[in-house]
Amino acid sequence: MAEAEKDQFEDEETEEDAPLERRNKIFSKELRCMMYGFGDDRNPYTESVDILEDLVIDYISEMTKKAMEVGRPGRISVEDIIFLIRKDPKKYSRVKELLMMSEELRKARKAFDEIKYATATK
């Protein structure tokens, strides 16, 4: 019985095990733009983008797995990610910068909505 179940699951391919040609290209457009911004050709080789995308997906997967182990079981919080990158000064400062910008944008949207609401009720 266990043998039959094992064979059944061996036939199914996970996204991670799928050949490169069949994987969904999640970040390829953004990676092409980033590569161009960092000095690559306007249209970089598809193979270069694919390799970079595999690296990005692997990094995100590993960080997610580690974050799941650090904080509350089954949940990931921003603090978990900050904890994991605390020893890398570049990543840490960039995350802090992005979090501050996000907070500023949230406050600006809230102020804009209040002004919009105040003028609509007059």
UniProtKB/TrEMBL annotation:
UniProt-annotated stretches for the region Disordered: 1-22
One Pfam entry name: TFIID-18kDa
One CC-aspect GO term: transcription factor TFIID complex
Listed GO MF terms: protein heterodimerization activity; translation initiation factor activity
Feature: compositional bias, Acidic residues: 8-18
Family: Belongs to the TAF13 family.
InterPro entries: Histone-fold, TFIID_TAF13
Compartment annotation: Nucleus
Origin species: Mizuhopecten yessoensis (Japanese scallop)
Name of the protein in question: Transcription initiation factor TFIID subunit 13
